[in-house]
Amino acid sequence: MQTNWPELLQFDQQHIWHPYAKMPSLATIIGVQKTEGSIITLANNQTLIDGMSSWWACIHGYNHPVIKQAMHAQIEQMPHIMFGGLTHQPAIELAQRLVKLTPNGLDKVFFSDSGSVAMEVAIKMALQYWISLNKPQKKHLLTVRNGYHGDTFATMAVCDPDNGMHAMFNNTLTQHYFAPAPQMGFDKASDNQDIKAFEALLSQHHQTIAAVAIEPIVQGAGGMRFYRPDYLTQLNQLCQKYNVLLIADEIATGFGRTGRLFACEWANITPDILCLGKALTGGNLTLAATLATTNVSQTISQGSSGLLMHGPTFMANPLACATAVASIDLLLSSPWKQNIQRIEKHLIHALQPLNDQPGIKESRVLGAIGVIELEQADLGEEIQKVAVQEGVWLRPFGKLIYTMPAYNIPQTQLQQLTDGMVSAIKTVLSLK
Ligand SMILES: *Cc1c(COP(=O)(O)O)cnc(C)c1O
Hints:
The chain is α/β, with parallel strands linked by helices. The chain has helices at residues 5-15, 53-56, 65-77, 89-101, 115-132, 153-156, 193-205, 229-241, 294-301, 318-333, 336-351, 380-389, 411-429; strands at 32-36, 39-42, 47-50, 106-112, 140-144, 177-179, 209-214, 218-219, 225-226, 245-249, 273-276, 288-293, 360-366, 369-374, 392-393, 400-403.
Protein backbone atom coordinates (compact mmCIF):
# COMPACT_ATOMS: atom_id res chain seq x y z
CA MET A 1 0.00 0.00 0.00
CA GLN A 2 1.15 3.49 -0.85
CA THR A 3 2.14 5.57 2.19
CA ASN A 4 0.45 8.95 2.19
CA TRP A 5 3.42 10.89 3.56
CA PRO A 6 1.95 14.42 3.33
CA GLU A 7 -1.01 13.30 5.42
CA LEU A 8 1.15 11.47 7.97
CA LEU A 9 3.52 14.40 8.35
CA GLN A 10 0.60 16.76 8.80
CA PHE A 11 -0.73 14.58 11.63
CA ASP A 12 2.75 14.36 13.15
CA GLN A 13 3.12 18.12 13.14
CA GLN A 14 -0.25 18.64 14.81
CA HIS A 15 -0.21 15.82 17.37
CA ILE A 16 3.21 14.40 18.20
CA TRP A 17 5.84 16.01 20.38
CA HIS A 18 9.43 15.64 19.22
CA PRO A 19 12.51 16.14 21.43
CA TYR A 20 12.73 19.72 22.72
CA ALA A 21 10.00 20.86 20.34
CA LYS A 22 6.96 23.07 20.20
CA MET A 23 3.42 21.81 19.72
CA PRO A 24 2.38 22.10 16.99
CA SER A 25 5.86 21.65 15.66
CA LEU A 26 7.45 24.65 13.94
CA ALA A 27 10.60 22.92 12.79
CA THR A 28 10.67 20.83 9.66
CA ILE A 29 10.25 17.19 10.59
CA ILE A 30 11.49 14.78 7.95
CA GLY A 31 9.87 11.40 7.36
CA VAL A 32 12.16 8.37 7.30
CA GLN A 33 11.32 5.17 5.38
CA LYS A 34 14.17 2.90 6.29
CA THR A 35 17.77 2.62 7.37
CA GLU A 36 20.72 0.42 6.41
CA GLY A 37 24.30 0.70 7.63
CA SER A 38 25.06 4.43 7.77
CA ILE A 39 22.38 5.33 5.23
CA ILE A 40 19.00 6.84 6.09
CA THR A 41 16.35 6.73 3.34
CA LEU A 42 13.84 9.55 3.59
CA ALA A 43 10.16 9.56 2.66
CA ASN A 44 11.00 11.26 -0.67
CA ASN A 45 13.54 8.49 -1.42
CA GLN A 46 16.50 10.81 -0.87
CA THR A 47 19.32 9.15 1.06
CA LEU A 48 21.41 10.74 3.80
CA ILE A 49 24.71 9.68 5.35
CA ASP A 50 24.11 9.45 9.06
CA GLY A 51 26.43 11.62 11.15
CA MET A 52 24.64 11.16 14.47
CA SER A 53 24.36 7.40 15.15
CA SER A 54 20.92 8.37 16.50
CA TRP A 55 22.50 10.23 19.43
CA TRP A 56 25.61 8.10 20.14
CA ALA A 57 23.64 4.85 20.10
CA CYS A 58 23.84 3.06 16.73
CA ILE A 59 27.55 2.26 16.84
CA HIS A 60 27.32 -0.61 14.33
CA GLY A 61 25.16 1.35 11.89
CA TYR A 62 21.51 0.46 11.35
CA ASN A 63 19.97 -2.98 10.73
CA HIS A 64 23.13 -4.97 11.41
CA PRO A 65 22.35 -8.56 10.35
CA VAL A 66 23.99 -10.16 13.40
CA ILE A 67 21.94 -8.06 15.80
CA LYS A 68 18.75 -8.53 13.79
CA GLN A 69 19.24 -12.27 13.96
CA ALA A 70 19.70 -12.23 17.75
CA MET A 71 16.58 -10.08 18.08
CA HIS A 72 14.50 -12.43 15.93
CA ALA A 73 15.65 -15.42 17.98
CA GLN A 74 14.75 -13.73 21.26
CA ILE A 75 11.35 -12.64 19.96
CA GLU A 76 10.57 -16.28 19.17
CA GLN A 77 11.74 -17.41 22.61
CA MET A 78 10.45 -14.74 25.00
CA PRO A 79 10.13 -11.01 24.24
CA HIS A 80 9.32 -10.10 27.81
CA ILE A 81 8.87 -11.39 31.34
CA MET A 82 8.72 -9.47 34.59
CA PHE A 83 11.98 -9.37 36.58
CA GLY A 84 10.51 -9.39 40.08
CA GLY A 85 11.33 -12.84 41.49
CA LEU A 86 12.16 -14.21 38.02
CA THR A 87 15.29 -14.17 35.92
CA HIS A 88 16.44 -15.20 32.46
CA GLN A 89 19.50 -15.99 30.39
CA PRO A 90 19.72 -12.71 28.42
CA ALA A 91 19.90 -10.63 31.64
CA ILE A 92 22.49 -12.94 33.18
CA GLU A 93 24.62 -13.07 30.04
CA LEU A 94 24.51 -9.30 29.73
CA ALA A 95 25.41 -8.74 33.39
CA GLN A 96 28.33 -11.18 33.02
CA ARG A 97 29.68 -9.11 30.14
CA LEU A 98 29.20 -5.77 31.90
CA VAL A 99 30.91 -6.97 35.08
CA LYS A 100 33.82 -8.33 33.05
CA LEU A 101 34.29 -5.34 30.74
CA THR A 102 33.76 -2.35 33.01
CA PRO A 103 36.52 -1.13 35.37
CA ASN A 104 37.49 -3.65 38.06
CA GLY A 105 35.28 -3.74 41.11
CA LEU A 106 31.99 -2.77 39.49
CA ASP A 107 30.24 -6.09 39.94
CA LYS A 108 26.63 -5.34 40.84
CA VAL A 109 24.22 -4.52 38.01
CA PHE A 110 20.84 -2.75 38.02
CA PHE A 111 18.94 -2.69 34.69
CA SER A 112 16.54 0.07 33.65
CA ASP A 113 15.03 1.45 30.46
CA SER A 114 16.76 4.75 29.76
CA GLY A 115 19.85 6.75 30.58
CA SER A 116 18.01 9.25 32.73
CA VAL A 117 16.60 6.47 34.86
CA ALA A 118 20.01 4.81 35.15
CA MET A 119 21.26 8.13 36.58
CA GLU A 120 18.23 8.40 38.88
CA VAL A 121 19.08 4.95 40.21
CA ALA A 122 22.73 5.97 40.67
CA ILE A 123 21.66 9.01 42.70
CA LYS A 124 19.25 6.90 44.71
CA MET A 125 22.00 4.36 45.43
CA ALA A 126 24.31 7.14 46.64
CA LEU A 127 21.68 8.65 48.93
CA GLN A 128 20.64 5.26 50.28
CA TYR A 129 24.29 4.39 50.93
CA TRP A 130 24.64 7.30 53.35
CA ILE A 131 21.21 6.74 54.91
CA SER A 132 22.34 3.19 55.65
CA LEU A 133 25.45 4.57 57.35
CA ASN A 134 23.32 6.88 59.49
CA LYS A 135 24.57 9.95 57.68
CA PRO A 136 21.36 11.20 56.04
CA GLN A 137 22.78 14.73 56.03
CA LYS A 138 25.00 13.57 53.15
CA LYS A 139 22.28 14.16 50.59
CA HIS A 140 23.68 16.71 48.13
CA LEU A 141 25.60 16.09 44.96
CA LEU A 142 28.67 17.86 43.68
CA THR A 143 29.07 18.14 39.93
CA VAL A 144 30.73 20.38 37.36
CA ARG A 145 29.23 22.96 35.05
CA ASN A 146 28.41 22.05 31.45
CA GLY A 147 27.20 18.61 32.46
CA TYR A 148 24.23 16.72 31.06
CA HIS A 149 22.74 13.76 32.90
CA GLY A 150 19.16 13.46 31.67
CA ASP A 151 15.72 15.06 31.61
CA THR A 152 14.07 13.65 34.74
CA PHE A 153 13.85 15.75 37.90
CA ALA A 154 16.74 14.29 39.87
CA THR A 155 19.00 14.37 36.81
CA MET A 156 17.95 17.86 35.72
CA ALA A 157 19.27 19.06 39.07
CA VAL A 158 22.83 18.06 38.06
CA CYS A 159 22.67 19.39 34.50
CA ASP A 160 24.34 22.74 33.88
CA PRO A 161 22.15 25.21 35.78
CA ASP A 162 22.51 28.02 33.23
CA ASN A 163 23.14 26.77 29.73
CA GLY A 164 21.28 23.51 30.31
CA MET A 165 17.85 22.89 28.90
CA HIS A 166 16.15 23.05 32.28
CA ALA A 167 16.97 26.47 33.72
CA MET A 168 13.27 27.31 34.11
CA PHE A 169 12.89 24.56 36.72
CA ASN A 170 15.79 25.75 38.84
CA ASN A 171 13.66 26.81 41.79
CA THR A 172 11.88 23.47 42.03
CA LEU A 173 15.01 21.34 41.71
CA THR A 174 17.09 20.00 44.57
CA GLN A 175 20.00 22.37 45.06
CA HIS A 176 23.40 20.84 44.48
CA TYR A 177 26.96 22.14 44.27
CA PHE A 178 28.52 23.13 40.95
CA ALA A 179 32.25 23.42 40.45
CA PRO A 180 33.60 25.18 37.34
CA ALA A 181 33.74 22.93 34.30
CA PRO A 182 37.07 21.17 33.73
CA GLN A 183 39.32 23.19 31.43
CA MET A 184 38.89 22.22 27.84
CA GLY A 185 41.47 20.04 26.09
CA PHE A 186 42.13 16.32 26.26
CA ASP A 187 45.92 16.60 26.01
CA LYS A 188 46.54 20.21 27.00
CA ALA A 189 48.72 20.93 30.01
CA SER A 190 46.77 22.54 32.81
CA ASP A 191 47.38 24.89 35.71
CA ASN A 192 44.91 22.79 37.73
CA GLN A 193 42.83 25.84 38.68
CA ASP A 194 39.76 23.79 37.83
CA ILE A 195 40.60 20.93 40.18
CA LYS A 196 41.57 23.40 42.90
CA ALA A 197 38.15 25.06 42.64
CA PHE A 198 36.58 21.61 42.78
CA GLU A 199 38.53 20.71 45.91
CA ALA A 200 37.61 24.01 47.56
CA LEU A 201 33.91 23.15 47.26
CA LEU A 202 34.44 19.58 48.34
CA SER A 203 36.51 20.46 51.40
CA GLN A 204 33.93 23.02 52.48
CA HIS A 205 30.79 20.90 51.96
CA HIS A 206 31.82 17.24 52.03
CA GLN A 207 29.87 16.58 55.20
CA THR A 208 26.64 17.18 53.29
CA ILE A 209 27.77 15.67 50.00
CA ALA A 210 26.75 12.11 49.09
CA ALA A 211 28.46 11.83 45.73
CA VAL A 212 30.22 13.54 42.88
CA ALA A 213 28.53 13.03 39.52
CA ILE A 214 30.47 13.56 36.30
CA GLU A 215 30.73 12.53 32.67
CA PRO A 216 34.27 11.15 32.30
CA ILE A 217 36.52 12.83 29.66
CA VAL A 218 33.67 14.01 27.38
CA GLN A 219 30.90 16.35 28.47
CA GLY A 220 28.24 15.57 25.90
CA ALA A 221 24.97 17.46 25.50
CA GLY A 222 26.15 20.15 27.93
CA GLY A 223 28.74 21.48 25.48
CA MET A 224 30.64 18.70 23.67
CA ARG A 225 33.75 19.45 25.72
CA PHE A 226 36.76 17.14 26.12
CA TYR A 227 38.97 17.34 29.19
CA ARG A 228 42.23 15.75 30.38
CA PRO A 229 42.35 12.33 32.08
CA ASP A 230 44.51 13.80 34.84
CA TYR A 231 41.55 15.91 36.01
CA LEU A 232 39.55 12.72 36.44
CA THR A 233 42.40 10.98 38.27
CA GLN A 234 42.67 13.85 40.73
CA LEU A 235 38.90 14.12 41.12
CA ASN A 236 38.75 10.42 41.98
CA GLN A 237 41.48 10.85 44.61
CA LEU A 238 39.61 13.80 46.12
CA CYS A 239 36.41 11.76 46.36
CA GLN A 240 38.33 9.18 48.40
CA LYS A 241 40.08 11.80 50.51
CA TYR A 242 36.80 13.51 51.46
CA ASN A 243 34.75 10.34 51.70
CA VAL A 244 32.16 10.92 49.00
CA LEU A 245 31.05 8.46 46.32
CA LEU A 246 31.90 8.92 42.64
CA ILE A 247 29.20 8.44 40.00
CA ALA A 248 30.60 8.18 36.45
CA ASP A 249 27.99 8.85 33.77
CA GLU A 250 29.24 6.91 30.73
CA ILE A 251 25.88 6.90 28.98
CA ALA A 252 27.41 8.76 26.02
CA THR A 253 31.05 7.64 26.26
CA GLY A 254 30.56 3.93 27.00
CA PHE A 255 31.36 1.18 24.45
CA GLY A 256 34.33 2.64 22.66
CA ARG A 257 33.35 6.10 21.46
CA THR A 258 36.43 7.87 22.91
CA GLY A 259 38.89 5.17 21.81
CA ARG A 260 38.75 3.23 25.07
CA LEU A 261 35.91 0.85 25.85
CA PHE A 262 34.98 3.13 28.78
CA ALA A 263 36.26 6.68 29.24
CA CYS A 264 37.16 5.95 32.89
CA GLU A 265 39.98 3.81 31.50
CA TRP A 266 41.83 6.96 30.34
CA ALA A 267 42.33 7.82 34.01
CA ASN A 268 42.53 4.25 35.20
CA ILE A 269 39.82 4.74 37.80
CA THR A 270 36.96 2.67 39.14
CA PRO A 271 34.02 4.86 40.16
CA ASP A 272 31.70 3.64 42.93
CA ILE A 273 28.76 3.79 40.53
CA LEU A 274 28.74 3.70 36.72
CA CYS A 275 25.86 4.51 34.35
CA LEU A 276 25.49 3.00 30.87
CA GLY A 277 22.86 3.49 28.17
CA LYS A 278 22.72 4.78 24.61
CA ALA A 279 25.08 2.35 22.76
CA LEU A 280 24.36 -0.54 25.17
CA THR A 281 22.06 -2.27 22.66
CA GLY A 282 23.88 -0.85 19.65
CA GLY A 283 21.00 1.61 19.49
CA ASN A 284 18.39 -1.00 18.65
CA LEU A 285 16.26 -0.91 21.80
CA THR A 286 16.05 1.21 24.88
CA LEU A 287 18.03 -0.21 27.79
CA ALA A 288 20.32 1.19 30.47
CA ALA A 289 22.32 -0.12 33.41
CA THR A 290 23.71 1.19 36.67
CA LEU A 291 26.70 -0.71 38.05
CA ALA A 292 27.98 -0.46 41.62
CA THR A 293 30.82 -1.79 43.72
CA THR A 294 30.29 -4.43 46.38
CA ASN A 295 30.95 -1.76 49.00
CA VAL A 296 27.94 0.22 47.75
CA SER A 297 25.64 -2.79 47.46
CA GLN A 298 26.65 -4.23 50.84
CA THR A 299 26.24 -0.95 52.64
CA ILE A 300 22.78 -0.43 51.17
CA SER A 301 21.84 -4.03 52.02
CA GLN A 302 22.93 -3.60 55.64
CA GLY A 303 20.75 -0.52 56.09
CA SER A 304 17.48 -0.62 57.99
CA SER A 305 15.45 -1.19 54.83
CA GLY A 306 18.14 -3.20 53.09
CA LEU A 307 16.28 -3.06 49.81
CA LEU A 308 17.30 -0.88 46.93
CA MET A 309 14.03 0.96 46.46
CA HIS A 310 13.66 0.85 42.69
CA GLY A 311 12.06 -1.57 40.18
CA PRO A 312 10.92 -0.50 36.71
CA THR A 313 8.10 -2.50 35.11
CA PHE A 314 10.22 -3.40 32.11
CA MET A 315 13.41 -3.98 34.09
CA ALA A 316 15.88 -6.21 32.19
CA ASN A 317 13.51 -6.71 29.26
CA PRO A 318 14.78 -9.97 27.68
CA LEU A 319 14.59 -8.70 24.11
CA ALA A 320 16.64 -5.62 25.00
CA CYS A 321 19.15 -7.68 27.01
CA ALA A 322 19.62 -10.22 24.20
CA THR A 323 20.13 -7.32 21.79
CA ALA A 324 22.75 -5.80 24.10
CA VAL A 325 24.59 -9.15 24.37
CA ALA A 326 24.68 -9.41 20.58
CA SER A 327 25.85 -5.80 20.25
CA ILE A 328 28.66 -6.19 22.78
CA ASP A 329 29.87 -9.46 21.23
CA LEU A 330 29.76 -7.87 17.80
CA LEU A 331 31.73 -4.87 19.06
CA LEU A 332 34.41 -6.99 20.72
CA SER A 333 34.80 -9.23 17.66
CA SER A 334 35.18 -6.19 15.39
CA PRO A 335 38.34 -4.10 14.89
CA TRP A 336 36.62 -1.28 16.80
CA LYS A 337 39.81 0.35 18.07
CA GLN A 338 41.25 0.63 14.58
CA ASN A 339 37.92 1.97 13.39
CA ILE A 340 37.86 4.68 16.04
CA GLN A 341 41.47 5.61 15.18
CA ARG A 342 40.60 5.70 11.48
CA ILE A 343 37.61 7.98 12.14
CA GLU A 344 39.59 10.18 14.53
CA LYS A 345 42.37 10.64 11.99
CA HIS A 346 39.89 11.47 9.28
CA LEU A 347 37.91 13.91 11.41
CA ILE A 348 41.07 15.79 12.42
CA HIS A 349 42.15 15.98 8.79
CA ALA A 350 38.72 17.13 7.61
CA LEU A 351 37.74 19.57 10.37
CA GLN A 352 41.04 21.20 11.32
CA PRO A 353 41.15 23.44 8.21
CA LEU A 354 38.06 25.21 9.61
CA ASN A 355 40.07 26.50 12.58
CA ASP A 356 40.93 30.21 12.29
CA GLN A 357 38.10 30.77 9.83
CA PRO A 358 35.86 33.73 10.62
CA GLY A 359 32.74 32.68 12.54
CA ILE A 360 34.38 29.51 13.84
CA LYS A 361 35.61 29.35 17.39
CA GLU A 362 37.36 26.01 17.15
CA SER A 363 37.23 22.46 15.89
CA ARG A 364 37.97 19.57 18.21
CA VAL A 365 38.13 15.82 17.79
CA LEU A 366 38.39 12.95 20.22
CA GLY A 367 37.92 9.34 19.18
CA ALA A 368 34.93 9.11 16.87
CA ILE A 369 33.57 12.52 17.91
CA GLY A 370 34.09 15.60 15.75
CA VAL A 371 32.91 19.04 16.87
CA ILE A 372 32.86 22.47 15.23
CA GLU A 373 32.07 25.24 17.68
CA LEU A 374 30.78 28.38 15.99
CA GLU A 375 30.89 31.92 17.37
CA GLN A 376 27.15 32.30 16.86
CA ALA A 377 24.40 30.14 18.36
CA ASP A 378 21.54 30.61 15.91
CA LEU A 379 22.85 29.03 12.71
CA GLY A 380 22.27 25.37 13.55
CA GLU A 381 18.91 25.02 11.87
CA GLU A 382 20.14 26.59 8.65
CA ILE A 383 23.28 24.44 8.65
CA GLN A 384 21.17 21.33 9.20
CA LYS A 385 18.98 22.27 6.24
CA VAL A 386 21.93 22.77 3.91
CA ALA A 387 23.54 19.57 5.19
CA VAL A 388 20.41 17.62 4.24
CA GLN A 389 20.63 19.12 0.74
CA GLU A 390 24.23 17.90 0.72
CA GLY A 391 23.05 14.41 1.65
CA VAL A 392 24.17 14.41 5.30
CA TRP A 393 22.21 14.04 8.55
CA LEU A 394 23.36 16.27 11.43
CA ARG A 395 21.57 17.62 14.48
CA PRO A 396 23.37 20.79 15.60
CA PHE A 397 22.55 22.43 18.88
CA GLY A 398 23.44 25.97 19.87
CA LYS A 399 26.91 26.80 18.60
CA LEU A 400 27.83 23.16 18.12
CA ILE A 401 27.85 21.32 14.81
CA TYR A 402 29.07 17.84 15.54
CA THR A 403 29.21 14.28 14.34
CA MET A 404 29.68 10.86 15.94
CA PRO A 405 29.32 8.32 13.13
CA ALA A 406 28.91 4.56 13.39
CA TYR A 407 32.27 2.87 13.99
CA ASN A 408 31.98 0.78 10.83
CA ILE A 409 31.05 3.63 8.49
CA PRO A 410 32.82 2.96 5.15
CA GLN A 411 35.63 5.39 4.37
CA THR A 412 33.90 6.80 1.27
CA GLN A 413 30.78 7.59 3.30
CA LEU A 414 32.88 9.12 6.06
CA GLN A 415 34.46 11.37 3.43
CA GLN A 416 31.02 12.34 2.09
CA LEU A 417 29.87 13.01 5.63
CA THR A 418 32.66 15.45 6.46
CA ASP A 419 32.50 17.01 2.97
CA GLY A 420 28.79 17.70 3.50
CA MET A 421 29.32 18.96 7.02
CA VAL A 422 32.16 21.33 6.07
CA SER A 423 30.35 22.51 2.97
CA ALA A 424 27.13 23.25 4.91
CA ILE A 425 29.05 25.25 7.51
CA LYS A 426 30.98 27.17 4.84
CA THR A 427 27.83 27.91 2.86
CA VAL A 428 25.95 29.26 5.85
CA LEU A 429 28.95 31.25 7.12
CA SER A 430 29.64 32.39 3.51
CA LEU A 431 33.20 31.11 3.66
CA LYS A 432 35.16 30.06 0.58
C1 LIG B 1 21.82 10.89 26.84
C2 LIG B 1 22.43 11.01 28.16
C3 LIG B 1 21.69 10.81 29.33
C4 LIG B 1 20.20 10.53 29.32
O1 LIG B 1 19.88 9.35 28.65
P1 LIG B 1 18.38 9.14 28.09
O2 LIG B 1 18.40 7.76 27.54
O3 LIG B 1 18.17 10.20 27.05
O4 LIG B 1 17.45 9.30 29.24
C5 LIG B 1 22.35 10.90 30.54
N1 LIG B 1 23.66 11.18 30.61
C6 LIG B 1 24.41 11.37 29.50
C7 LIG B 1 25.88 11.64 29.64
C8 LIG B 1 23.82 11.31 28.25
O5 LIG B 1 24.56 11.54 27.15
